[in-house]
Amino acid sequence: MVKTYTMDLAGRTLKVEIGKVGKQANGCAFVQYGDTTLLCTATEAKAPRDGVDFFPLNIEYSEKFYSIGKFPGGFNKREAKPSENAILTDRMIDRPMRPLFPKDMRNDVTVENMVMAVDPACRPELVAMIGSSIAVAISDIPWDGPCASTQIGLVDGQMIINPSQEQWDNGDMKLTVASTAEKVIMIEAGAKEIPEQDMIRYIYEADAINKQVVNFINSIVAEIGKEKQPYVSAAVPQEIFDAIKTIVTPEEMENLVFTDDKMVRDKNMDDVTEKILADPRFAENEEWAAFVGDAVYQYEKKTVRKMILKDHKRPDGREITQIRPLSAEIDLIPRVHGSAMFTRGQTQICDIVTLAPLSEAQRVEGLDQFVTEKRYIHQYNFPAYSVGETKVSRGPGRREIGHGALAERALLAVLPSVEEFPYAIRAVSETFESNGSTSMASTCASCMALMAAGVPLKAPVAGISCGLVTGDTDDDFVLLTDIQGLEDFFGDMDFKVTGTHKGITAIQMDIKIHGLTRAIVEGAIGRCKDAREFIMNGVMHDAIAEPRKEVSKYAPKIISMEVPVDKIGDVVGQRGKTINEIIARTGVKIDITDDGKVSICGEDQAKLDEAKEMIRIIITDFEKGQIFKGKVVSIKEFGAFIEFAPGKEGMVHISKISKERLDHVEDILTLGDEVTVVCLGKDRMGRISFSMKDVAQN
């Protein structure tokens, strides 16, 4: 039986159909917002997956080009690997949903969202977030949802709830907030220096909308939701914990954990594991031995959380507001266009910036119905050696793509315009060492590398992460400034905020609990502001206080100019003859956009100026009295033809070559001579007419 449910959401109808399609999935919803339509499904494996110590949740956001009436690009004309946008959407759905599943469940769960139609007024990513929650909520899969997501845009100072694609792309803020019925559970933002208090207000405007959507989903679940099925728990039996505590006492565990060196702590935990496995109770019991790895992890976690929550004692001895030791330097990599390294404790990022002509910008084909270009690209690499492990690199995974996108958003607000700085910009963050919050170190390193490369940033940007450990009540919590890896693994939150002195440029919040109170959100945002001010005013300012005035001598030089749209054809010439001639003569690279913006790129400033002058001459409407320099390209009995720009010629009549009477043009001129001429206007045949005798020859 098909059931249809609707609600008004920000002035548009959200429609959900259950039982129409996908009946063999554990949960399936056909969701429509405006004309944007997605099929959202949730399925669960019947038995736990063997050999895993985590909950295997897989989120898929599948972009179909038929949804916008287009063929996919590429030779095969078939959707290929997920786009960067699809991967980032997967992560945005995963982050609020994952904490609501049982932590001790090991059954594979897959949530798939297939985009089938796109209405530019209703972003499909938002529909996927809501549809995923509906599909799991109505299924028999164990889950403590539902949750809901709302997006907030800011256009001309006006807050827009669930903005259109155009409003989303061109506004001053991109904010996504997910909530349960009680609390905020996920925040992601990119913004143009939004003040902290304004951002908090926008977050809770979105939270209020989310509560309405959660109520709507709950009404669906109440009517047709399936009973949640039991699962096999992978939790460590209490008797094993009790046995381990007789081998390694809580006091001993605390001493082993208390160090600021990650490698020492890891070695201590390896020794603890060996000691436990050597005990006869474990050595002679394979079932118990199988739980040791997870049990040691849980024992370490409980120890760290107790130290922080009850004693305000961090594993590395810092105060709860204290940042790890910082250092920063620039220009450590020779010959690149810009480089910087930022170190915070045992987290170290080296960022390298490359500048290129605008034609090198990344072309992005997505479901917004437009092929767009990314002029600024930030990429992040996380090799295994950075955490002391060995693993073959297979290219960036979802985590690397997500961290790269976060650092990219962090700096977008302060980049110069194309008119101010006509370059494509690529920043690559290489992780040399990692012990927590490499994405925020990447932001700091990228900012310094861009300034070192001569990119005129409007303001410096820094980032920091705030952690959380909670107790039994909402009021029992401790916020931790600059969390290291252990505090991230064992804590409840990773709240990353980047910004300038003026305001926030990006947020990404991950949590492992069922939501945050407003006091925690406000406290974390305030804590991050204080910390990033400290970083910007300290080591970053000492390393480089402002952007360099010029780009590196190894970077290409680029000058810009504009030509009238009706003159573009003159510059390009028939089949590109004119522009190719300019390129051949000067060795520069020239790009012209459809609106007449010209970018000239090369290494020799004189050649750049020469190319620019050639273009200027080509687009000039010729008037009597203008002076030009040119080359003799043809000699006739009646005069000579002078090329004064590629594809542009004028004639000097024999009577206008010299003040003395000439019998033959060759008496004065030969092919290839460089001459200076003055424009006399056009002759009766429409040709440009020049005179040599009326201008002094150098």
From TrEMBL:
Q: What reaction does this enzyme carry out catalytically?
A: RNA(n+1) + phosphate = RNA(n) + a ribonucleoside 5'-diphosphate
Taxonomy, top ranks, is:
Bacteria, Bacillati, Bacillota, Clostridia, Lachnospirales
UniProt-recorded Gene Ontology molecular function terms? 3'-5'-RNA exonuclease activity; magnesium ion binding; polyribonucleotide nucleotidyltransferase activity; RNA binding
Record-listed E.C. numbers: 2.7.7.8
Which InterPro entries does this UniProt record tie to the protein?
Answer: ExoRNase_PH_dom1, ExoRNase_PH_dom2, ExoRNase_PH_dom2_sf, KH_dom, KH_dom_type_1, KH_dom_type_1_sf, NA-bd_OB-fold, PNPase
Q: What superkingdom heads the lineage?
A: Bacteria
CDD domains registered for this protein in UniProt: KH-I_PNPase (cd02393), RNase_PH_PNPase_2 (cd11364), S1_PNPase (cd04472)
Q: Which Pfam families match?
A: KH_1, PNPase, RNase_PH, RNase_PH_C, S1
Q: Which family does it belong to?
A: Belongs to the polyribonucleotide nucleotidyltransferase family.
Q: Provide the S1 motif domain boundaries.
A: 625-693
Keyword match Transferase: yes
UniProt source species: Butyrivibrio fibrisolvens DSM 3071
Summarizing the function annotation, the protein's role is: Involved in mRNA degradation. Catalyzes the phosphorolysis of single-stranded polyribonucleotides processively in the 3'- to 5'-direction.
- Print the keywords alphabetically: Cytoplasm, Magnesium, Metal-binding, Nucleotidyltransferase, RNA-binding, Transferase
PROSITE patterns from the xrefs? Answer: KH_TYPE_1 (PS50084), S1 (PS50126)
* Known cofactor(s): Mg(2+)
- Give any Gene Ontology cellular component: cytosol
Q: Where in the cell is it found?
A: Cytoplasm
One biological process term in Gene Ontology = RNA processing
Residues annotated as binding Mg(2+) are: 488, 494
Q: Could you tell me what this protein is called?
A: Polyribonucleotide nucleotidyltransferase
